[in-house]
Amino acid sequence: MKLQRYDTSYIKDYMETPEGYLTVNVPITRPGVFPYQRQDGTVQMEAKLPEDIFSDRTIYSARSKPVTDGHPNEPVTIDNYQAYAKGMSHTDSRVEDFKLYISLTVTDKALIEKIHEGYNEISIGFLSDVVAESGTYNGDQYEFVQRNVEINHIAIVEKGRAGPEVAIRSDSDAWQIDEKEGGNTEMVKIKIEGTEYEVDPAVKAYIDEFTKNMKGDSADTFQGRLDALDLTLKAKDREIATLKEQVLSADELDKQVEKRVALINTSQAILGDSFDFTGKSEREIKEAVISTTKQDFKGDGKSDDYINAFFDATVEQVQSNGFSSVGANSAYTGDAGTNKDLEAMKNQRLNMRS
């Protein structure tokens, strides 16, 4: 059994013939997923797939069809043509811009006057097999597919109704769905931001469903997800900042290497060649140097500033007194020996540094 459906777009411009008729060229349908209202008031998503509405059957069905003033309560046939027809579509139906286009001429004076006054939406009435088949088209999910689409008439309807801001539209050509099965729909009222509009029942059902999903638990859940995402992003920002601090630039790395080499060169003259610097931190090396002058030295609990100052003083003392890591002039005893030996040890220390 074929079901009757309605799709709507509006007249953007028209041409007046010498006889006073109006001729327009309009898109009348396109592929997509659209909401349609069932008899029980619920809305189901139905797909018009390209292979169906761009089939020869559907394209040819738009040709030489009656133009009507609003949608009749029944399909237009030869038996009621005289009662409903206010013009006729032409035979130039074709596909352009991924839409089905056709031109038509309105011949009824009263309807032409309505069009001049703004009564200028075009809505096709068509019959189709509605097949239960779920899927996705262009990211939109559908539950049913319209097959064997046959256009019965092309109606001129009142523009806007509730205005473009509340009509269900899907592209710049202002496609609107008029979903009631059979005949003209009875309008219902809906309030948006304090203003009351009359809309198709399917439009109201669509808006009510959207509003319901944005309230109560759904809104709380949505906000909870946003808050969790915000915390995750902040944690990632902190992690990135930490990593940036840990990553040295090439110049910084060169400076660190130079500083390390200078520390080892200075400390090796005091600690001796047998001291293993591998894996030792800067502080561990400095504490080892300090221990050459203070054998019971413990750095536990001491600040880095304290260690650095003690280390600098130790190095300065060694360089001033000519202490070395071994022999009579070792830093452990502080025994300078003879002046001759002291001078020799100083020269030896200077040679090691150079």
Defining traits:
354 residues; alpha+beta; 2 domains; 12-stranded mixed beta sheet; 14 strands
Walkthrough of the structure:
With 354 residues, this protein is an alpha+beta fold. It folds into 2 domains: 3-186, no CATH class; 250-353, no CATH class. The protein has helices at 50-53, 56-61, 81-84, 109-116, 201-213, 216-246, 250-271, 282-291, 304-321, 339-353, and strands at 3-10, 15-16, 22-29, 32-37, 43-48, 66-69, 85-89, 94-96, 99-106, 121-137, 140-157, 176-177, 188-192, 195-199. Strands 1, 2, 3, 4, 5, 6, 7, 8, 9, 10, 11 and 12 form a 12-stranded mixed β-sheet that branches. The longest helix has 31 residues, at 216-246. The radius of gyration is 45 Å and the shape is rod-shaped. Mean pLDDT is 75; it is low at 3-7, 160-185 and 324-339.
